[in-house]
Amino acid sequence: MVDSAIRREMRILISVLLIVLNPVLLFAQDSTAVKKDSIKRLKEVTVEAEKDNAFGITRLKQVEGTAIYAGKKNEVIVLDDVNGNTAANNPRQVFGKVAGLNIWESDGAGIQLGIGGRGLSPNRVSNFNTRQNGYDISADALGYPESYYTPPVEALERIEVVRGAASLQYGTQFGGFINFKFRQAPENKLIHVRAKQTIGSFGFYNTFTSVSGTIKKITYNTFYQFKRGDGWRPNSGFNAHTAFAGLTYSVNKKLKIGLEYTFMEYLAQQPGGLTDKQFLKDPQQSNRKRNWFRVNWNLAALNLDYEINESSRINWRSFTLYAQRDALGNLGRIDRLDVGADRDYLQDKFRNFGSELRYLKQYSLLKTVSTFLVGARYYQGTTYRKQGLGNNKSSADFYFNNPEDLEHSNYTFPSRNIALFSENVFRITSRLNITPGVRLEYISTNSRGYYHEESSDLAGNILYERNVEDNRSSNRKFFLGGIGAGYKLNKSIESYINFSQNYRSINFNDMRIINPNARVDNDLKDESGYSSDIGIRGNIKNYLNFDLSLFFLKYNGRIGSIQKVDSTTYQIYRYRTNVSDSRNYGLESFVELDFYKLFAGSDKKLGISVFANYAFITAEYINSKEPSVKDGNRVELVPQQILRTGLNISYKEFKLTGQYAYTSEQFTEASNAVSTSTSVDGLIPSYSVLDASLSYSFRWVSISTGVNNLLNNYYFTRRADGYPGPGIIPSDGRSFYVTLGIKI
Predict the structure, then answer these.
(1) Residue 167 is part of a domain; what is its CATH number?
(2) What domain range is 523 assigned to?
């Protein structure tokens, strides 16, 4: 029944898409047939882009590969130019020049990344469509879009960030798209070796080695990373292994086939959260020593690139994920001692497969070359989620006490997604381009299983208990549209504007989770809305790089958290529901000025630049139906001001970087409570951090060192309702690192 319904929906979607695109295709074919000579001028258009900046930030071209970025706000982080603690994936330094990002810093080792933009939750990058080399890496791109795996920064060439307008090509997420792109193997070397060894504070050690090269028609790329540490707080040790292997075979000049495999495994002890009083007394303390977290990640991908002719190309990517995460520990209130009872054990197994096919064609129109893109995506995922009681030990022993009759819940979450999408860059003149786009989606999310229900009196006596069968299914189809435009004031400065619809389906955590600190509304609905940008960006004579923009994001039926009190136990808990609509709007700006080039002209030996990245964001609830949430309440996890600024000085092979980051206060739930008895919710005060880095390279050897949180400020960026808390999760204090690298 489900498969027949999907086939029926697909026939409808394909018919609609062909009706919409048929005039464009016919016109493209006719134009190509009449003006074959103009197609030869194609590459002059596609390679046109702003010049790279010398200190780590640039932008995507209008067309790259089989993707269109014209008229979209985007940033590209060039990792070779980032002077910072890359061994620890320090997000403040890596994403320091991307405007408006709110960063969670609850993982000092950089194993998991937490960033959100424009007032969206940073939780494991869940509001972005997150990819590696163009394919998905999250746990379940549809039902649980959280990323437990983050590629090592030392393995990356660049990070591509596209804001909400990416919804038409990469998925419906409000946040947009992030792509981690690995370094390419050299084409003129049989073997190229890069190795780095890093030691740092609190027992931190990182080793990274990559081997790559080209042998005739085969290009290979491999790396291995191991990192370990004791952590800034007690009970926060970790060790992690990450490995990657990729092979690309050039069948001929037109066809390339690539195969990639990524492995990641880590085990981390979690020191638990703190109450507000505990944090003020000693943010470095820990009162949990039996909490553990383990992840095993296996990701494989097959990539095919085929150039049909000078004006047409195809890309086909398929990927599969076989992964598991385990969380074991005491989830009870952090203001109560751990008395050594049986621990809570949560286990997720992810089994996913996806495939995406893209066709890009360039054709003549109005004496210019326009670009047409059409694609299709199929995705299916199955998550097996179990929650019950584990043993009462202190060690990392992951097993259920009663695997056949779990005390909390046992679910299977199958999901399926079929999407068709298309965009077209109409280059009206050599200066003006307009890019409309559409996306047709079919989403099916299901849950099958049971949860355990029990009731007790005030004395703790159980009145009744039972397992409740809970089988649900939700199938929906919808259409997204958008349009963008760009106008070049000159060769290096462009204005842009875009509008795109967005959609976010409820995930598995929204459906069911057993947590004493949180509950979920059984009638949650999907979220919808749109995002738009208007801005200007570019370079002035290669000494000034800037991007200034205004954005607006409308969220309908926004899922958020409010405070409620249990009528039986009178305990406060976090209630997750469709709170109300919201609107987010503000300013995002980035400016970098190279003083030496401005006043002394071009000199490759010396560079002195200052950058500033500032965002002002207003995010408020409107049309609220919840008594505790008034219209005008601030949306949670939205600091009104984010500032990151720094100084870069380079002389020959020396680089010195100082960076200051400030984030204003933010709330953690929709009623804007300043504090709560459990410390799960409340205010996150404003904080500032200063980092400094120094590096030197000589031929094939490099050395770098630095201090993170130079002023040793005590602050936190997150309050958790479950792992790794509950409660306040302090960020790391002052730490040092030294890295030795070689290239052969």
Answers:
(1) 2.40.170.20
(2) 2-743
